[in-house]
Amino acid sequence: MAGLNLIKRTGATSKMRVGRGGKRGKTAGRGTKGQSARAGNKKRPEMRDIIKRLPKRRGYGKNRAKGVIGTYTKSVAIPVGRIENLFAVGAEVNPTTLASLGLAKGRGARFPQIKIVSGGEITKKFAFSGVSVSASAKTAIEKAGGSVV
């Protein structure tokens, strides 16, 4: 009987190991009974369930299309033939003069983006400023003696 140790051990190892919570003893600060007193306790986060129930609202946010967000004003395409009919020779065409004729609606000093496109013929000389002009419209304007700034 060389390997058999029948001596009763004394000290810390002889005590019943309960709680395992440092100096807390028995329940180790977990209270008594219930789900949160058990080992492996992990409650599902309540806030996550609330968030998951909310609708996703796709298409909202900073990367939305310019036409969707109400603060953006839609761009207006105006053919050169229409300007030919409405303006006198040598007139300056800019967002303010276009808005005064009702071609572009603006709020206060803010106007939508205006682009002059080719469409119809232009024979009068005009000075365009503050508007974007297509390449084909620019050649037609310069051919008639006008300028684009």
What does this structure look like?
With 149 residues, the chain is of the alpha/beta class. It has a domain at 76-148: Ribosomal Protein L15, Chain: K, domain 2. Helix content is 20%, strand content 11%. The protein has helices at residues 46-53, 80-86, 95-100, 135-143, and strands at residues 76-79, 92-93, 114-117, 127-128, 132-133, 147-148. Strands 1-3-5 form a three-stranded parallel sheet. The protein has a three-stranded parallel sheet with strand order 2-4-6. The chain starts with 45 loop residues before the first helix and ends with a strand.
Topology:
Blueprint: H1 46-53, E1 76-79, H2 80-86, E2 92-93, H3 95-100, E3 114-117, E4 127-128, E5 132-133, H4 135-143, E6 147-148
Parallel strand pairs: 1-3, 2-4, 3-5, 4-6
Total beta strand runs? 6
> What's the SSE pattern?
HEHEHEEEHE
Q: Given this structure, which CATH class of the domain at 76-148 is correct?
A: Alpha Beta
Strand content: 5-15%
Shape: rod-shaped
Distance between the termini: 110 Å
Tell me about the largest β-sheet. Answer: 3 strands, parallel
Number of helical stretches of at least 4 residues: 4
Structural class call reads alpha/beta
Radius of gyration, taken over Cα atoms and rounded to an integer in Å: 40 Å
Looking at this protein, list some descriptive labels:
4 helices; 6 strands; alpha/beta; Ribosomal Protein L15, Chain: K, domain 2; 149 residues; rod-shaped; 3-stranded parallel sheet; single chain; 20% helix
In short:
By secondary structure, the chain is of the alpha/beta class. The protein has 4 helices and 6 strands, in the order H-E-H-E-H-E-E-E-H-E.
